[in-house]
Write a structure and sequence with these properties.
By secondary structure, this protein is an alpha/beta fold. It has 11 helices and 22 strands.
Length: 456
């Protein structure tokens, strides 16, 4: 069927999430005529059902932990029962997100980026249909992100996913979280800290198994210490509704029941199945991720992909950085510019939080050999807990390459404040810092971060 082209762009972006918006605005700065297609709220997963509202909930959970366990200890504070209103927090959080949606719209307008509302589908390698309108472009970016994965078990419709977590109108009294990745760990920690009776079901014996073994083991222990009912080797087999309306979960480790809410957080998958990629000749891998090279090029010239849809480093800042570099390459004559995917720092807002960058100990040993790797490790109690009965530990670990002047290959830490202290050390590691560089840096006392420059 012949379709009339409604508008032609230099650059057409499918998906107005963090990566898509960043790339679109940067291209517009260089004088490109840019359009961006979105069928939902501006900002994508991170702003609406990811990093931003999750961090709000983490902050609330951390405040309750402080009030219940720390402030009324020997710090001298005295107060009555601590009450918490989930509906009040939700209303304030949702209003904040709505303001961010508006800011994104304003910024796109200021950058002269045309917003096209609807779902985009490829018609050809240079054309995308949105409803009954067709748009063409010299360059097209796929930045549609991902969605929560399904477990594929009977009764799964009784569970909510990570998106549904942000739709909860009140704090469930008893909740079951399924998953061992960072989303499950974060949400279980938030629910538990805010007062829900929380069970976490995992398939193996530890959470975050793709992280450094020290982090995986430590956060697993902290989950147990926090009061979460951690069930190991508990792969879910089915969900069912009881006569009283509660939900039961049949697992490989037995049946657990009485839940108001079951939250499925087993991972995410790319939303590529509705793009009609075949019409553009864009190849995907077995999981549906768009296959890209180091420069974000897909298998079809003139079509690119960034962010979660490309299947590596599913992190908002990665999508933003890759998207901006792509815009520089396409529209500012910086032909060799690309994102370096090595040494990308990341944090997990667990309780306590994790900060990590670089190779794990296991990866370093596999790559360079056991004899060439030296590990520096320290476990201590943060001074914050000196006045509290709660004695939460901090653990820090450096993975160093001995033949290369003990260059730091990896830094892994868990404890109060580790999320905030990682960024600066990440710069040093990205620049090739050695153990001697850290040793030659004067410590800031008394802080937890000084441990990283005083380890022996």
């Amino acid at each position: 069927m012949l379709r009339m082209v409604a508008q032609h762009f230099d650059y057409l972006v499918i998906g107005a999430g963090s990566g898509g918006i960043a790339s679109a605005r940067r291209a517009a700065e260089f004088g490109a005529k840019v359009g961006i297609i979105e069928n939902s709220r501006l900002g994508g997963t991170c702003v609406n059902v990811g990093c931003v509202p999750k961090k709000v909930m983490f902050c609330a959970a951390s405040l309750r932990e402080m009030l219940l366990h720390d402030a009324n200890a020997d710090y001298g504070f005295s107060y009555g029962d601590v009450s918490f209103s989930w509906p009040k927090l939700k209303a304030a959080r949702d209003a904040y997100i709505k303001r961010l949606n508006g800011i994104y719209e304003t910024n796109l307008g200021r950058s002269s980026v045309d917003i096209i509302n609807g779902e985009g589908k490829f018609v050809s390698p240079k054309e995308v249909a949105v409803g009954d309108q067709t748009y063409s472009a010299d360059h097209i970016l796929i930045a549609v992100g991902g969605r929560p994965s399904k477990a594929g078990i009977p009764g799964e419709e009784l569970a909510i996913n990570s998106d549904g977590f942000f739709e909860l109108e009140d704090l469930p009294k008893k909740v079951c979280v399924i998953g061992a990745g960072y989303i499950a760990v974060e949400m279980a920690g938030i629910l538990n800290a805010l007062g829900a009776d929380t069970t976490l079901l995992i398939r193996q014996d530890k959470v975050l198994r793709n992280f450094d073994s020290t982090l995986s083991a430590t956060v697993t222990d902290e989950i147990r210490e926090s009061g979460i009912n951690l069930m190991v080797h508990a792969t879910p087999k089915s969900l069912s509704r009881a006569a009283d309306g509660s939900i039961s979960v049949d697992t490989a480790a037995g049946v657990v029941d009485g839940f108001q809410v079951v939250l499925n957080a087993i991972g995410r998958e790319p939303t590529t199945d509705r793009l009609n990629l075949e019409a553009a000749g864009v190849k995907t891998d077995a999981k549906g991720n768009v296959v890209v090279d180091d420069y974000q090029n897909t298998s079809t010239p003139g079509i690119y992909a960034v962010g979660d849809v490309a299947g590596k480093y599913l992190l908002t800042p990665v999508a933003i950085a890759a998207g901006r570099r792509l815009a520089h390459r396409l529209f500012n004559k910086e032909a060799s510019l690309k994102l370096d995917y090595s040494n990308i720092p990341t944090v997990v807002f667990s309780h306590p939080p994790i900060g990590t960058i670089g190779l794990t100990e296991e990866e370093a040993v596999a790559k360079y050999g056991q004899d060439n790797i030296k590990i520096y490790k320290s476990t201590f109690t943060n001074m914050y807990f000196s006045m509290s009965a709660r004695k939460q530990k901090t653990t820090m670990k450096l993975v160093c390459l001995v033949p290369d002047a003990e260059r730091v290959l990896g830094l892994h830490m868990i404890g109060l404040g580790c999320d905030e202290m990682l960024q600066g050390f990440a710069v040093a590691i990205k620049m090739g810092a050695t153990k001697a560089d850290l040793d030659n840096t004067v410590a800031i006392h008394p802080t937890s971060s000084e441990e990283l420059v005083t380890m022996r």
